[in-house]
Specification:
about 70% helix, globular, single chain
């Protein structure tokens, strides 16, 4: 297109571009979140940086989603109206794929702010809800490939599908890679040493227990709860919310952030 030809399609182009940006940012946010949850980021300093990146990229993605939908109101060809961008499957243009895109947008808007409400809803419940963001990302991928005007182009498919393999890998790592009670004596001894070292750093005696024994694992949770209380951190959030543990340790002046790893291992 040359000259003034793109102008009649300006709002469509704005919506299309912001949709691609939103999906790219969502993919980055999901990748970083799964990497942290799957212990793929080991350094405490890197985990703090990753947590900030995860939060900011997620917020930017939500902003891009809003622009993606609202920009369509100005499109002269599609003319969706408020019903077309707010009611799933009501738009005549590829209704199935635009519908799942609207559903994904609603879910993203609902799940995103729960991060700031995790104290009210409880860290354990928040983490359970937060895992649904992967489903939102999957719906977004389907929306992009099914409703995108450039879906048949190789470059868009590459952008959309490039994160699939690493996200699937990290999701498997997150689901099956966390050792629980019964993980084995080697893992139990290693985790016990981590908890004991973290306790010594805070001046708290943590018994050297084995997490492969379910009864001992319950004892470990009780001990690590005492450690987290000494660090002025809510015990539930210390076990379930790594970001909150980092902030709590900072408030208490505790430098040994390896405690986070030991507490999560005990859970």
């Amino acid at each position: 297109m040359t000259g003034a030809q793109p102008l009649p399609y300006l709002w469509w182009l704005v919506s299309d571009a912001s949709g691609i940006v939103a999906l790219v940012l969502a993919s980055v946010s999901v990748l970083v979140g799964l990497a942290m949850a799957g212990k793929a980021i080991g350094s405490p300093k890197r985990r703090r940086s990753a947590a900030r990146l995860h939060e900011h990229v997620a917020l930017a993605s939500l902003a891009a989603v809003a622009v993606h939908g609202l920009a369509l109101l100005g499109d002269r060809w599609l003319k969706p109206g408020w019903a077309g961008i707010l009611i799933p499957f009501a738009l005549s243009y590829r209704p199935a794929f635009t519908g799942i895109g609207i559903v994904a947008g609603y879910l993203a808007m609902l799940l995103g702010p729960t991060f700031y409400l995790r104290r009210r809803i409880g860290a354990r419940r928040w983490r359970t809800v937060h895992r649904a963001t992967v489903i939102v990302w999957m719906l977004s991928v389907g929306h992009a490939l099914g409703a995108g005007s450039d879906a048949s182009r190789l470059w868009l498919r590459a952008v959309v599908l490039a994160p699939v393999a690493p996200i699937v890998y990290l999701l498997v790592l997150r689901t099956f890679g966390t050792r629980r009670c019964g993980a084995g004596p080697v893992a139990g001894q290693r985790d016990a040493k981590r908890r004991a070292a973290a306790g010594r750093g805070l001046g708290v005696d943590v018994p050297a227990v084995r997490v492969d024994d379910c009864a001992s694992d319950r004892q470990a949770k009780s001990s690590t709860s005492a450690v987290s209380r000494s660090a002025a951190v809510d015990p539930v959030e210390a076990l379930e919310d790594p970001a909150e543990l980092i902030r709590g340790n900072a408030r208490a002046g505790v430098a040994d952030l390896d405690l986070k790893v030991s507490i999560e291992a005990a859970s």
